[in-house]
Design brief:
Blueprint: E1 3-7, E2 11-12, E3 18-25, E4 36-41, E5 48-53, E6 59-61, E7 70-74, E8 79-84, E9 93-99, E10 102-103, E11 107-111
Parallel strand pairs: 2-11
Antiparallel strand pairs: 1-3, 3-8, 4-5, 4-9, 5-6, 7-8, 9-10, 9-11
């Protein structure tokens, strides 16, 4: 089955860009018919889908995120990534990468000076 693992910083300062990577094993980003998603869960709230990159490289973003986030894939590394610019403390959350029923364990990112 597909396995996903998030990686990135634990702490980001306000106004910086948050960059996270999801490494995929037992599945090919370029050849699998999945939508590779980023989802987050701020403390005390529910899950929020942020966006996804499709198997052909098309991207889809949540309209609730007014900032210009970026999700892209690197098929040579079998990874996909998230960039969230101009973070604020409200972006503190557990960030998950997922593909349908397959989810990573999540990584807590705190935005604080």
């Amino acid at each position: 089955q597909v396995q996903l693992q998030e990686s990135g910083p634990d702490l980001v300062k306000p106004s910086q860009t948050l960059s996270l990577t999801c490494s995929v094993s037992s599945g090919s980003i370029g050849n699998s018919y999945y939508y590779w998603s980023w989802i987050r869960q701020p403390p005390g709230t529910g899950l929020a889908w942020m966006g996804a990159v499709g198997y052909r490289g098309s991207t889809y973003y949540s309209p609730s995120l007014k900032r210009h986030i970026s999700i892209y894939r690197d098929t040579s590394k079998n990874q996909f990534a998230l960039q969230l610019p101009s973070v604020t403390p409200e972006d503190t959350a557990v960030y998950y990468c997922a593909a349908e029923q397959y989810w990573g364990k999540g990584t807590l990112v705190t935005v604080s000076s």
